[in-house]
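#random but structural
TW: two for the price of one
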Amino acid sequence: MKTMHCIRDIAFLLFWVCSAPAVVAEDTPTEKSRQEQAALAVINRFTDGQMKVKVALSLEKDAKNCDRYAYSATSDELTVEASSAVAACRGFYDYIRSKHAGYCGWSGSRFQMPEDMTQDTVTMLSQFRDHQYFNVVTYGYSLPYWDESRWDQEIDWMALHGIDMPLMLVGAEQIYREVFYEMGLSKAEVDEWEVGPAHLPWFRMGNLAGNTFDGPLGEEWNRRQRALAHHLLDRMRALGMKPVCPAFGGFVPKAFTRHHNGTTESTGWNWIPADCPNYRLNPGSTAFVEVGRRFLQKWEQEFGVSKYYLSDSFNEMEIPSSTATLTQYGDSIFKSITEGSAHPEVVWVTQGWTFVYQSASWGNEKFKALTRNIPDHRFMALYMSPEYGPDKCWEQYKGFDGKEWCYTMLPNMGGKSFRTGNFSHYANTYLTNLYASSVRGNCTGYGITPEGIENNEMLYELICDAGWTPQNGIIDLNKWLKQYACCRYGQYTDAEDALLHMLCNTVYSTYIDHPRYGWQTGTNITGTGNALPGDSFYQGLEKFFSDTEALKRRCSPLLEAELIELVALYVSGYVEKISAKVLTLADKPEAAGRLIDELDDLMTDLDAALELHPLCRLQRWEEMAVEMAETDSVKKRNARNARRIVTVWYGHHTYDEPVQDYAARLWSGLVRDFYRPRLVNTLKQRLGMLDSFDHIAFENAFVAAAPVLSEARAVEGDHIEFLSALIQRAKSVGAMAERPDAPAGKSFFQSESVQQQINH
């Protein structure tokens, strides 16, 4: 037996050496050259090769292994010295923004050659060794259908924003299949366990299982995901990133115990009924370590060796009351990782959401029990987050008792479109609190763990900047706002200054938990949503559009994208107010009917505005899902899964679940074909204008129809003129709601000046 273990250990060592790109020391010439070339490739794509840049990984990291960069420029060449490829990209990006010469975002990027390139040397030392990115559920709300091209854009975005520790969870399901097949399970037994692509995060964390969630994934999905995982890991490792890959958390198909001894328990979840449980192995069973070890062995044989592996066993579910049981879980997970991985210093990473969200059920003693037998440098918690839970919750855990941890921001739940977040807190307060804490412990990292991305770009830019600010440095928001406007919009007039400061004083002055409008929540159409930006927001946006002609002359594509989102919030707030007012008109059926018609038309206009945005379109989301499939049946299933996750969420929708309408997206397609007809018919039913309206049947039919959408109203004229008219239209209908017997103004689409340009 000892001989077999020696042979296995020697094989692992040889495999680790052969898999050098994943773990080669950063100071070897080969790896250094590789990273320099990878950084230059990112920079060249961003600048379209227009700028002469020299990158040299010539700087050493500091005593805490934190990255640094230094940049300087002559009249014709920028030189960036750094301690890693990601630090070099971040240094380049900071130089470009210091010159107001560019911006990299999800809705688009901008670059122009600086008029004066010269720059004396500027240096920066990060305060953190690790810059982490992604939440497990980002893989459901934003990432499930991305192809190589979209992922390549995101990896460039990460590098330019100084992110070097992304979660990389693509490709795990095929590896699990291979493990379970070897252990005697049939394809049918695994098929009945799996879920569709967008629901994989909760499947991976043990919250649910079963192919009522548009599963199973199928062979073509797994084949494509395997190839995609290779591509992503190659790119991340070339940049010197530290991808956090998947590890076993104990979850197995229900059929597993028919083939192996060892008990399982069903796992329930806080958020949906307990009729679709996953199953978790008892941590004391030999099968727990065996499955985890086999999984990582196969993972590394396929994808190479990594240092960091993610395993979560208690996400939003009951925490064992016994500290002995928690220790057993910790020991089994860590043993499966160390025996399965060939990396000599492999680290178990876990999401710290459970420690915040369920802090009352944990406490320091339970955390210490979970990690009792794990060396401090072999465990990392991703602390999530200062927006939720007790203030400075890490202090409850005594800085995680010497274990490594990352301090991450969670600025978005579900990819919701409403803008929220306290700018001054993200810029300075959160990190000031961390630095000042006497029980900060071994905080090695900083990051962003949003549930959904491709939204609220302004806030993400600020959060990334805070992670690359000196410990005693303070972000001056006035200067930051000017730089943001100059870099993204291409100019900073008094109007932009007023607009951005208005945002800081309204939507960016506080954090709203789960913001959405009442009309986005099923039958709750009563004006009780919490996504109301306030009068100052409405007045500030109206003022910005007061000189439409001047705005049209200076408006850039990225400013237009920003304005579409802001106007959508403006109009949505009026829809909230108007829909609530309609319900007070039961004794005035004629006025109520006219107001509902106007509301219907206003929401169609809102949808037309969102159709102009590069991201805010349901059709784009569903097309990505369809393009990930090869056969018609899988295309249909993927589209249905994509539509389900942003609407009803649940697998077999029969009643209002807590997660229904959770994503709350302001997207074209969703507004015109889902929110609008549901709202209009619900209002009519409540006022007795319809005998009945079965909203559950309507919602299920909408999901089943994917990816078919009605045609959006077309905007053939000037977009800024249209947005300005839409603001006035919303005000007009809002005034009508206050005086239901007064006439309302015409829709933008009803005006003679544009009627000939419209193709309904």
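TW: number two ↓
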Amino acid sequence: MVSYPLNHATEHWQNTKHAVSSDTGVVAAQHVLAAEAGASVLGRGGNAVDAAVATAFALGVVEPWMSGLGGSGYAVIWDARAAKASVIDFQGVLPAGIEAADYPLDPNVPMSIMGFPGVVDGRNVQGYGAVSVPGALKGLSHAHQRFGKIGFDAVLEPAITLAERGLPCNWFTTLQVALAAEGLSHDPQARAVYMPGGRPPLPEQFLDLGQLAVTLKTIADDGPDAMYGGQLGESMCADLERGGSRIRLQDFADYEVIETEALAGRHRGVDLHTAGPTSGGPRFIEAFEYIGRHLDSSQGIGAHSYRIYADALNSAWRTHNRRIGRETEVGGCTSHLSTVDDQGNMVALTYTLLDRFGAKVVLPGSGILMNNAVSYFDPRPGFPTSMSSAKRINASNMCPTIATRDGESLFAVGASGANFIMPCTLQLAGFMLDFGLTLEQAINQPRIDASDRGSIRVDPRVGEEVFQALAQDFDLEVAQAMVFPKLYSCPTGVSRDPVTGALSGANDPTQPVGGAVAAPRSSAFEEQVET
């Protein structure tokens, strides 16, 4: 069977993006202003980790619908000198005082973004009851402290500068706010910041982000302790408690980052380093094991390769869904960035507010937009992902990955988009490892999407011959790769030639504000902001 959704032939142009190349370092992100912030830190003498942390802070300012200080995630870091990959797990944690009784099931409410049954009023998806203890600040600062090179205040400076100016609005900003307008309208502070006048903002303006710049300055001065036990944390927890959250200051004080060795896999002589057992990493490794056994790469990219990729993805997803006892996800909003410096250090970092604008709650005292990670937990008892006191997110799709060969870094890739993340990241890596594509070619190559949902989604750019061949084996959903809906994820990556040292970076061609930026030989960040 072949289905043709509304968007199968909506747009009559094709977008491509060229990779940015440099010998000084490259930062790629879902918003080019954040990539510029990270690149400027490289220009000031920072390394790939400094750049990644700077970019992540900046993304929370210019791409607030995806990530920020109120979020959580993973970073995979390649230390070139030690020839070692590490994972920083800064996933969200439920408050110690959470009560499952607060989230009674309601069959009339749609399932959550993680595919779990709906609860009364959707209170695990939106509002103060949906918020978990965020790990972003502690995770980013931990990565910087362990692997960074320059001062924390210097790393935060670009984000502070951006926050003081405000959220830059273009048509894409208007789209993102409009998609979440109904939810944002229920929180007075979120409505005031993102919908002044009660409606999505028009382009060609900057929105005042409330207390966010002041909060970033406080963090630059006091470090992460400002949130995890200090006055900033006290302010946040007071706002959360007033809104009905069960999060208390002790939950912030008890929060811990987890640092481990990366989950390891191997494909065609290349070592794959990805996030740990609670991420999309295990599915990623399992799928590549299947590909290694069945793919004949001499046939090139075509019906055979897409068929093998689809079978590998479906098999890995089947294992995963059985393990956690759910159906499948229905969406999600995340941000990914990748960095590389001239020493070969790399970072692949994915973090998220989960849904678009998270819980759609802005804390008045800090200007921080909060996650809705309670929706990552099953409201039913008896499952591995069931909610319980102080439980950490243990089933995520984020799949930041770094590839190395003989101790030399090759590429750092990842993506955003909930259940679309792992299939996208796998194909991006597969196109490069199985068929020798460059990062630029891989980013622009059409993809499929498969997650054991009974059909596979196919970009019509694969061509009629491939399309007809796949239709013999699969039920197909024919859908274009578009700005919205984002049905094939949003990939971002950097690469390095270990022989020449040439570096490059690229972002999804259908992400209008995303891009890669080469590190300047001297910082020009202030001039970029002013213009």
